[in-house]
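Example 3.
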Amino acid sequence: MTHLPHPQPSSAARGEKEDEAASSFTRRGVLAGAAAATAAASIGAADSPASAQTGNDMVAFVQLSAALTGIADVKLATGNFNATPANSDPVDIRRQYFDWVNRRRPAVFRRLLQIAGDAQKLPEAGRAQAIIDRVQAAPDAKYLARSIVLMWYLGAWYDPGDLQKAAELPNHPSPAFKVISSKAYSQAWALRVAQAHPMGFSEMQFGYWARPPSERPVFIGN
Amino acid sequence: MAAESCIECDVAIVGAGFAGALIALELNRDANNPIKVIVLEAGAAVPANINEYLERFYTAAAKVPESPYTPEVVDKDDRPTDPSKVMAGRPTSLSLGANNWTDPKQSYLVQKGPRPFASTYDRVAGGTQHWLGTCLRFVPADFKMKTRYPSVPQFVDWPIAYDDLNEWYGKAECELGVSADLQEQKFLGIHFPDTYKYPMPKIPRSLVDVAVDEALQSLPEERTRFLEMEQPPTSIPVRSLPAARNSQPYKNRRACAGNTNCIPICPIQAKYDPTITLNDATETGHGEILDRHVVREIVVGENGRISHINFIQYRGPATRGCVKAKVYVIAANAIETPRLLLMSNNGGRAIANSSDMVGRNLMDHPYYVAWGLTQKPIYPYRGPLITSGIGDLCDGPFRGKRAAFRVDIGNEGWNFVVGGDPNVTTLDFVNGLNNSGLNAQPDRRESPLGKEALFGKALVDRLNEKFTRQFRVGFLVEQTPDLDNRVTLSQQFKDGLGLPRPEISYNLSDYTRQGMVAAYRMKDLIFEKMHVTEFTKKVAKDEPTRFDELIDGKIVSFNYYGAGHIMGTCRMGDDPRQSVVDKFQRSHDHGNLYLVGSSTFPTGATANPTLTIAALSLRTARHILDTDFRR
């Protein structure tokens, strides 16, 4: 666990509605704020040369993921995925996910990145929905898109071929999955969407459960 | 193995769980009178830290109770490995399915039925790291079931009463570090010494607890008459559970941070487990733990006294050895302790078994669960797994007719009941499936294909709305001690060391099943008062724990889980013809042999057994010092 950001003691007074990421003053929270202030641009050479990805690819991946998951980009890619120096994101799960998908389904992944890249020209208000609409209209890309959403939500890999069979064939067994890494598990979003935390990975403090959680946007930015 | 070449010590303890660890430490409280203790542990060594356990837990697809601890019982795809190849085998929840519970190639326990014994256990430190932390005392009536409820033929009295344990409960609560509110724990006759204080204030209630409590504050008598209490209650209190979970820093461990993961592993060790006491016991300089040492035989010498025990160690290539001590304490569990006694042949008879009670009266708390959605968010998946329950219905006149139950209230939503949420529900709404039941197509509730497959904000909205309203409730049902619920030795199947595996016969008595029926009615009452829409999955036809009962003219199918509370197979009593150990857990047959842990419980009550195991263990340690070492 030493490679994960360590939760820090809450600086807020006890007894208030002070729960969770809201006021527990975490690195994640601080860096997310910094990232939010920055506009999208290319990282260029700062990216790992060993990777097939370019800076634009990573921007497209985060935008694609944000549109499909409904979770704010600054939450998915904490820190600044455009900044110099790169890798100011202490979690940096996006890179692991990008590489994971790119190794398994490079061609279809390229199509999804293209869809997200093209959408950058659209006004921000309709961008997410435009990405979703185009993904839904592309049968070969749709199931990989679902795999990507599940990866972000659960830190686990569900093969798109298995998802397709489960969704289209009657009585097909529920697809198996593999937890991508311990980091992926601890960064999973499903229970943050539920205003909680991955089981076994609380960044909150004693007694938080006796009070209502913070509002949803505090957790996922939406 | 000749006794002359044995490792020598004062006290040999077999098993490093709660009972073994507590006794190992307690024997060396007095630094001026050291007692050399050797603990033989069948499983692996306690690691220096829990990082490896956590890594395994986080990356396990099936996050079952044993997932952090036992890499050898599953293969790389999380399927059970062949138990004949595992050195110190153990049951796993992955081998309780319809397709494999009776398959000895997958199930370490050779299950003969007619129903599955559904609890599992582990080996390292007794596997007790994956307990929940609940530290309830028994209620006084639990010790006197035959006297109080003579109409139930299976019941016997304990040879001790609540007052014999009162002081020891307090000592156990101190050692484990229990958080509770004293006034709140005074119910059904539970009482405390005048000056008593719990070590820490109680763990706060969750929002889920509060929702249940509010719903049960005003009840019409006609809705609670089925409980057959003294008087039909018009309100039923939800009480915080005493827990060995820190509510403030205690014994150098931090306060609970609500990781919602007590089972299988607390990532910050805010919850007590026996590795803490084992560490203290070895720190005394007089306690030693021999890991991967499986005791295979207890040998009787002169005057019925135990002369030595024989073990196989498998740290490297397996070798044999023996330990010679003044006193022997068998602290395995209620399956492994009788197994060892039965493996030890004393002139054609098992050890400590002149009563023929060794291995009989196997009990658990068969666990019935139900789940649904509340109308408003109650925010599960926050706080310890369980923080409150209903204990006030654990004793009353009904116990002459049907089993008591204790209610526990889950803070973990539908996590385990649907086979692993948040994954199941998330997959449903991402991929258009309906394994949770929450994404049903109109009029096609049973179909595995769901109504919606969502992306983006619609997905977030839907999952938030579902997850925050998930509710589940559980009922731990008292089980009668039945002679035919039994641990014996398999003649056919062996473990990786060539030792016979435990064979289990198990059933639920009518009395126990009627407790489930009452639990079902209680579930209806709770759901009605909380306005919960029920989603409990229909019990599959081939579900091995399934049984049907007629309730109000309707056939209701039940299934049950194991509670991990394995009890009863070396029962305690005053009469050597009817029981295996005396009130200090000493064998009636062998003066220097003690059997400790919940195997000695004559009846099982509804509280989880750990605190009572701990109290009895401390009391036995005192008795060993007084009588065997005259300290």
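The first helix of chain B runs from residue 18 to 26. The first strand of chain B starts at residue 7 and ends at 8.
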